[in-house]
Write a structure and sequence with these properties.
Layout lengths: L2 E2 L2 E2 H24 L6 H20 L8 H22 L1 H7 L5 H9 L6 H18 L7 H18 L2 H5 L6 H19 L1 H7 L2 H21 L3 E3 L2 E3 L2 H19 L6 H8 L1 H7 L2 H12 L8 H28 L1
Antiparallel strand pairs: 1-2, 3-4
Helix pairs in contact: 1-2, 1-13, 1-15, 1-16, 2-9, 2-12, 3-6, 6-9, 7-9, 11-12, 15-16
């Protein structure tokens, strides 16, 4: 696949679609007050697929892996932005949420609960880097090491109440534990070029699509829950299969898509979008309701709200990039 400034275009497309799906989910929650498209259909999969493609990018096959360089990248690319963005939006969040004090907001930031996605991504990458170091001379143990945390979380949630576990989820380590395997699978796909070539085959695309559609219908009709945050999973085995197949389908589709600049740009700036994917839908939802345009079971209003959310979020991200380039 062609690259621009070392970026893999289809990966940016995949990340962009995932981030737009997350924006849509938050728009539903804040504007409509509930999920309109069932969560099990796409919301959790968007997060899982994002971790999958992030794993694909973690190690470049043509470059020597450096723990020091990668640690610096995690700190500057994830940890520092996490604290900057969460501190900046801490005060507005206390005004938007009547039950949130400034002290609670600061405590959430310190404990990695201001947002679950980025802390989980940070912990996932640190864990994966540690496992790569431990398995340096025995590469065959890396998939085992990445699968064990998934099993641990599945067992914990099988034997211990979800509410108890959610109160002991410092820096979203439980989310990171089960996302680690999807992250590894993305990494493994990049190490085996034949996997990407396989996804380019039309018969594979059709097969994946048919299986995923059938699986989603079954999950919806049977009321299966695959919520990734807060973790509420009916079957971790199904979550594993569902997450992998949908991630592969997303990759297969994006490998075929023509270059769509807005989606690609969203993917290239996905971290910025995520930090505002709650605040922007919240404010847009409040504004539309203030303008006497509540959802009121009218799909066109949800579509309008999402378009406004996406344009507003894109404008904010553009301004953030402008500030960054002028520093």
């Amino acid at each position: 696949m062609a690259t621009t400034d070392k970026r893999i275009l289809w990966i940016d497309m995949a990340r962009g679609l995932c981030m737009m799906a997350i924006l849509l989910f938050h728009t539903e929650c804040y504007y409509c007050g509930e999920e309109i498209i069932p969560y099990v259909v796409f919301a959790g999969n968007a997060a899982i697929a994002f971790f999958f493609v992030s794993g694909y990018l973690f190690v470049r096959p043509d470059a020597e892996f450096s723990i020091k360089r990668k640690t610096r990248s995690i700190i500057t690319g994830l940890v520092v932005p996490y604290f900057i963005f969460t501190l900046v939006i801490a005060l507005p969040k206390t005004f938007a949420h009547d039950d949130l004090s400034i002290q609670d907001a600061l405590l959430n930031i310190i404990t990695g609960h201001a947002t679950w996605f980025v802390p989980a991504l940070i912990v996932t990458q640190l864990l994966f880097m540690l496992l790569m170091r431990l398995c340096k001379s025995r590469h065959q143990w890396l998939p085992v090491g990445c699968a064990l945390p998934f099993v641990v979380v599945a067992l914990l949630h099988h034997y211990i109440d979800n509410e108890v576990l959610s109160s002991h989820n410092l820096w979203c380590w439980q989310n990171a534990f089960f996302m680690l395997f999807f992250f590894y699978m993305g990494h493994a796909m990049r190490q085996r070029k034949e996997m990407v070539n396989l996804l380019r085959r039309n018969d594979v695309l059709v097969l994946l699509a048919v299986i995923v559609v059938g699986m989603k219908i079954m999950e919806y009709q049977t009321g299966i829950c695959l919520t990734v945050e807060p973790i509420h999973v009916t079957s971790f085995t199904l979550l594993l299969i569902d997450g992998l197949l949908v991630s592969l389908l997303v990759c297969a589709v994006c490998l075929r898509l023509p270059r769509i600049a807005p989606i690609e740009w969203t993917g290239a700036n996905s971290l910025y979008y995520y930090f505002i994917c709650g605040g922007v839908p919240l404010m847009v939802g409040k504004a539309l309701n203030w303008c006497h345009l509540p959802y009121d079971n009218q799909i066109w209003r949800l579509i309008l709200a999402f378009i406004i959310v996406y344009i507003a979020a894109t404008a904010i991200v553009w301004m953030l990039n402008l500030i960054k380039t002028r520093r």
